[in-house]
């Protein structure tokens, strides 16, 4: 996992430096707002029900249009997702989570129609893909208080014979599609994107084989109770179970985007040297 994190950071740094060195045709600065939801071990099976689990999302971005078909974009997003067995067919399992997350991503956009900023308005479909990092921290409400799940080790993390605690910052691969409405100075968009996670612990649940007695004795009654609410945390029970499946978790964002086009002005201002002052020699006869 450390190797994947280093690779993700290196690729994002390379993309940032590459984009900064290109002669950008247009530079857009903007913001996005919309909703987020997730697909994982605690999500409903029905796609419609997953949409009903949507929570707010927002962010800011910078877009560099380096050709008539391609542009690069750098996003900083903030969102929230949640899952609860009480809203699925797995009510007896009794698991639940909620997490806010922050993501930074470097994305390439490909437009089906050439990008043109004119005084008229045009609609452009596009697809995108890239790489990024996401920071999350799954929690659950217990007796009116929010408890962080990762430090508890609900699946025996940190105990002999079990995995190490999972990292709260993970690489991810964002991709999706959208449509833009472009005017001379503004760009309005509607976008849907998925985040392919490199972890199955976005919801603190995986397919790891766990022994309730191990968790109870090693990580405490609260960890055992939240690991398996059905067995609880009153006493250690020598039984094995799996809380989830092997599939990795996914996060999804649906956003409306608004950006202002600065044209070549910012790039020219940053790249052109400041001209030296010049003085004209006075003409005419001197007294």
From TrEMBL:
It holds the Pfam family DUF6089. Residues 13-214 form the DUF6089 domain. Keywords: Signal. Residues 1-24 form the signal peptide. It comes from the Bacteria. InterPro entries: DUF6089 (IPR045743). The keyword Signal applies. This is DUF6089 domain-containing protein. It comes from Phaeodactylibacter luteus.
């Amino acid at each position: 996992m450390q190797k994947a994190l280093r690779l993700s950071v290196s690729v994002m740094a390379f993309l940032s430096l590459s984009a900064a060195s290109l002669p950008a045709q247009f530079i857009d600065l903007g913001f996005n707002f919309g909703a987020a939801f997730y697909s994982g071990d605690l999500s409903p099976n029905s796609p419609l029900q997953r949409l009903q689990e949507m929570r707010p999302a927002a962010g800011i971005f910078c877009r560099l249009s380096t050709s008539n078909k391609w542009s690069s974009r750098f996003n900083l997003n903030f969102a929230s997702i949640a899952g609860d067995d009480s809203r699925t067919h797995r009510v007896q399992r009794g698991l639940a989570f909620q997490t806010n997350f922050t993501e930074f991503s470097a994305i390439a956009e490909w437009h089906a129609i050439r990008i043109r900023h004119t005084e008229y308005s045009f609609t452009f479909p596009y697809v995108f893909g890239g790489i990024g990092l996401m920071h999350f921290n799954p929690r659950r409400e217990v007796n009116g208080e929010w408890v962080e799940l990762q430090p508890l080790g609900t699946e025996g993390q940190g105990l002999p014979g079990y995995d190490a605690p999972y990292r709260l910052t993970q690489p991810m691969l964002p991709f999706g599609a959208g449509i833009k409405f472009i005017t001379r100075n503004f760009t309005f968009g509607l976008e849907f994107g998925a985040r392919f996670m490199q972890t199955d612990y976005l919801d603190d649940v995986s397919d790891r084989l766990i022994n309730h007695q191990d968790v109870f004795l090693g990580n405490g009654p609260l960890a055992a109770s939240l690991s398996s609410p059905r067995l609880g945390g009153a006493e250690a029970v020598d039984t094995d179970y799996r809380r989830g499946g092997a599939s990795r978790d996914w996060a999804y964002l649906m956003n409306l985007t608004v950006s202002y086009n600065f044209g070549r002005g910012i790039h020219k201002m940053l790249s052109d040297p400041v001209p030296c002052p010049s003085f004209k020699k006075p003409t005419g006869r001197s007294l």
